[in-house]
Amino acid sequence: MADPSSYRPRPGEIPVDPGVYRFRDKEGRVIYVGKAKSLRSRLSSYFQDVGALHPRTRRMVTTGASVEWTVVKTEVEALQLEYSWIKEFDPRFNVRYRDDKSYPYLAVTMGEEFPRAQVMRGAKRKGTRYFGPYGHAWAIRETLDLLLKVFPVRTCSSGVFKRAAQVGRPCLLGYIDKCSAPCVGRVTPEEHREIAEEFCEFMAGSTTRFVRRVEREMQAASSALEFERAAVLRDNLGAMTKALEKSAVVLGDATDADVFAVSDDELEAAVQVFHVRGGRIRGQRGWVVERESEDVASLPLLMERLLQQVYGGESSEGVPREVLVPVLPEDAEAVEQWLSELRGARVEVRVPQRGDKRQLMETVRRNADQALARHKVTRAGDLTARSQALQELQDALELDEAPLRIECYDVSHVQGTNVVASMVVFEDGLPRKGEYRRFIVRGDEAAGPAVDDTAAMREVLLRRFRRHLAQAEAQGETATEEAPTATAGAPADLPDTPAGIDPETGRPRRFAYAPQLVVVDGGLPQVNAAQRVLDELGIDDVALVGLAKRLEEVWIPHQDFPVILPRSSEGLYLLQRLRDEAHRFAITFHRQRRSKAMTTSALDGIPGLGEARKKALLRTFGSVKRLRGATVEELQEVQGIGPALAEVVHARLAGEQAEPGVNLTTGEVLS
């Protein structure tokens, strides 16, 4: 752990302007991103007496090795830059919202010639209207199933739409009157767009007008003795009523608002939000966040970070007119201005004091209370369990510090063919999937072809740690030559590049960060082989263990007896998760390689011979065996094969043995 005073910048160097700052560790990774109205006062607060800091803040400043900052003009710019950096670097000490999955929306693609209603997730697209979010995709499909009787808008994919147009026959929905069938010309593009626009108006909250119109038409049809039409209109009215019952009115005046509530304790906080559109609840979302982070040490700061996450990636249609919160965010004015710019109209962030909105917030808070209680009984997300697991590993393996970064390796193959390996990374007891790596094992020249697990593991570890040592050495030479007097507390625009960061892209290098603990899948032979690799490279600051599957024994290099962790141990549970994740990642890659190998042939890899030309050759000659017997002149007769390419193909096939494969045209096994 570093002493914060070793990289503390001089107060006179830090500007008093608003800006965004980043703490980096000794490897150059960004570990925390924050913003401030005054950079000088905020950064000075981190370098006071370490004992007076919040526990997680103390851990952050002692993990850090440098701090840098960027000055901006306004607090709104600081808010935007902070959000983009948190998304880019994913700092470990910034708040992590769990269960922030992509929620489904009911989307209508008004930008197409024939608008389509569908379930859609992810980034918002231009020209598409969104309604939601909904808690589940099936809720959207239920709503669509009811309303398609009234608004028969297209819901099929582009492929189904084109096929129906080609054959001149609509799909099943067209026959049962749940689609107006614009594919076969039952309605014109203008008429179909009008149906889609009415559907959007109904979903946006203008429901009364459509209900009254259907009632008038039903009564008129009944008076004119058109009972069949009246029955259809009656069914339509029932469908609209049933759809409206699924989202009861909670706020009047067609209110568009998002209502947030928080339930918290000393360790964690649960956040719930109800999305109200047109006065009706359209969806619900929830997160659980650890309270140990400085980001959520206070509720105002928690709300600010939450609003950044919820609305940072939204389009203008995703931001409502009102955002109701239990407490105002820390920089309420800046947040309001930022949301207003996103929406293109004024957005009000406020705390409801009385009336229906206050009652609705109490309902949301009760949901947050229940969500926090449910979360407490789960094991994987429990901060105490993760901390206990790391502490148990430190004690059992006699490490100097808790292994905050653990890497696990596994090898996968079938009888020595298609040998691959995986590297998975856990940081703070949680998977860091962006750091996962896959290896194609080609064999070590000194040891011969790597057909067994031990030789394959040796090659993988050599490649991984040689790359790390080479990058560390290159970075050290660069730092010595270019910036011999660089200070740790330098602003962001100084020319020196932190260790582990690519100076060209500004992103972390691959394999730049060494782990505190390496786990291999296997017993004492595998562990000793892996230890020989580390000894050969002169690496003595990385601990190494192996986890044997039969009795779940933890093996340490050069020890005759394993370490036995209790079956109820959180440390053993963490090692098992690492081992299982590495096995899953390796076997998935192996299956991909094996599947690809089953469809290769002697034609693969010939320069200038793409998929279209390979298929043309196989259609003409039928198999690779006949291709080998063909002359250059016969090859030239195939469309797309010129004299030069024919010479290359003939020479390559004549000089190589036949490789097993599959004819991509006929599916037969090639000889």
From TrEMBL:
Keyword DNA repair appears in the UniProt entry: yes
UVR domain residues: 208-243
GO CC annotation: cytoplasm; excinuclease repair complex
Amino acid composition bias (Low complexity), ranges on this chain: 472-499
Keywords, alphabetical: Cytoplasm, DNA damage, DNA excision, DNA repair, Excision nuclease, SOS response
InterPro entries associated with the record: GIY-YIG_endonuc, GIY-YIG_endonuc_sf, GIY-YIG_UvrC_Cho, Hlx-hairpin-Hlx_DNA-bd_motif, RuvA_2-like, UVR_dom, UVR_dom_sf, UvrABC_protein_C
Pfam families xref list: GIY-YIG, HHH_5, UVR, UvrC_RNaseH, UvrC_RNaseH_dom
GO MF annotation: an example: DNA binding
Domain GIY-YIG: 16-95
Organism of derivation: Arsenicicoccus cauae
Biological process per Gene Ontology, one example term: SOS response
Subunit structure: Interacts with UvrB in an incision complex.
NCBIfam families in the cross-refs: PRK00558.1-5, uvrC
Family the UniProt entry places it in: Belongs to the UvrC family.
Region: Disordered, residue numbers: 472-507
Function: The UvrABC repair system catalyzes the recognition and processing of DNA lesions. UvrC both incises the 5' and 3' sides of the lesion. The N-terminal half is responsible for the 3' incision and the C-terminal half is responsible for the 5' incision.
Subcellular location: Cytoplasm
Main location: cytoplasm
The protein's name in its UniProt record: UvrABC system protein C
Listed CDD domains: GIY-YIG_UvrC_Cho
Span of domain UvrC family homology region profile: 259-534
